[in-house]
Amino acid sequence: MVDALTSADAEKPSWPTQIRSATWRYVLRRTFVEFVRDDGVDAAGSLTFFGVLAIFPAGLAIMAVIGIVGDSDDVRERLLSLLEQVAPGAVIDTADAILANVSGTTGADIALILSIAVALWSSSIYVSAFGRCVNRIYGVAEGRPYWKRKPFQLGLTVLLLAAVMLMIAIVMLSGPTLRLVGGLLGFGEVALDVWSIARWPVFALALVGVIAILYRGTGNIRLPRFRWLVLGAFVALLVMGTASLGFGFYVSNFARYNETFGTFAGVTIFLIWLFLVNVALLLGVELNAEIERGRELQAGFPAEEAVHIPLRDTTVIERNERASRITREHGSLLRQGEVPPPRPDSVVTRIREWLGRRADRRVQSRPRD
Predict the structure, then answer these.
(1) Which of 131, 244, 285, 313 could disulfide-link 143, Cβ–Cβ 3.0 to 4.6 Å?
(2) What is the pTM of this model?
(3) CA nearest 96: which of 78, 76, 66?
(4) Which of the pair, 338 or 93, is modelled with greater confidence?
(5) What DSSP designation does 17 have?
(6) Which residues are within 8 A (CB) of 244 and not within 5 positions of it... i.e. 6 or more apart?
């Protein structure tokens, strides 16, 4: 477990410009080394699995909400046109099939509300899995109990989906929709032309913000200020875009997925693309962790082995440490030929103690003759 340095923040660099060039070289070099040591590729593969499980319910929740207030088919077409600029054609086909299925779910009845609630619960599994990867990269254990961790993850999922819908609104503000909104707000033609160009940088900044929120809210760590997380998020977006364009070029010109996978070629290409996206996201987390290490090293704190980040909660960590200590003690008794006593932390022992306390209360509550 990583201990928090209470006085570190007062002496660490407060802005990226205050980090020395030698520290930056150390950070960049160690980012790639630690990414390999932390099994970043394997972690990206597991996130791809959870992403597949979460992407359909997430799309259901988003398109269902949009279907209540607008035209989900129009939104689907605009999203696909945006995705066509960075993703391979097979990814577009798979995304089109997913969005076409979920866009048919409309109506503001109880069934729709329940389906959105179930979709949010299912979508949170990716947030949970990403949090485990963040904990591994920072070298900490999960210390939040399930009853405290799951509601927080659900709230974070709602926040992320709301941010995605905001990004969809940014994409939608073009053409006739832009002129309609501009006319209602009293904007002139010049302002509309400026927005037509500026909406793409705004979209990119919004995506960086979504990634930074994912970084900050998932792990069992209290990360530094938002400006330090944006660095990793920006690099993740840059790697994501470059990898998508490169993979799309490779699929279009060199790959023969149709001959190898047949009818599963589109799904295979989509999974590989999603894997590359998760590699980029985890590389951004790794960069943020090493930037924090560089800040501590430059301030004179011993962070060569571990980054000193305060934890959100240590309840589960302490419970697991007690359980491990009891297991070692029982193993020692077995080695010495003795019979270990019942585990005080086992469910059976707790039930027996609870039944015993209830029996004692009954005896004490009986009227005496």
Answers:
(1) 313
(2) 0.82
(3) 76
(4) 338
(5) G
(6) 86, 87, 88, 273, 276, 277
